[in-house]
Amino acid sequence: MGFLFVALGFVGVIVPGMPTTVFMILAAACFAKSSPRFERWILDLPVIGRLVQDHRDGLGMPRKSKFIAIGMMVSAVVLSILLAITNVFLQVLVGAVGAVGVWYVGVRVPTKEDVLARRGDLEND
pLDDT tens-digit profile of 4-23? Predict the structure, then answer.
């Protein structure tokens, strides 16, 4: 399963709108149980490794990454609705799923800078 998630993660690097980090987080979780060597490999990847480790540490996503992710989701949904989907029901469905995704990343996923600021306030108390 870990290798499947790695493959999907690498596809996400190329395909706009498809997540990368989520699949790498899942791959690292699989490898944590089965192959510490491959888990370390993921954690040592230049950009993705830091994001996976931040997730494990409960830090969420950096603000810049959130803006990029939301922008990519909105772009993919709008382009899909305008250019690829002709069925009105599917357009509404894709729009609704996209809105839920934007809400989730924007509201539910912690922002790294905010988490660190709160942790700093807690340490100063």
Answer: 999 998 898 887 667 788 89
The two tokens of residue 7 are 């493959």
Q: Which residue has the tokens 């830091």?
A: 50
Phi, psi of 61, deg, nearest 5: -115, 145
| Residue 107 structure tokens | 């509201």
- Point out the residues of the chain with pLDDT beneath 50: 125
Give the Å distances, CA to CA, from 32 to 9, 11, 37, 79, 96: 17, 22, 9, 38, 35
pTM: 0.72
Question: How many residues are listed for the chain in this entry?
Answer: 125
* 72/65 Cα distance (integer angstroms): 10
Return d(Cα 40, Cα 64) in angstroms, integer. 25
**How far is it, in rounded angstroms, from Cα 43 to Cα 21?**
11
Q: Are 95 and 77 in contact (CB under 8 A)?
A: yes
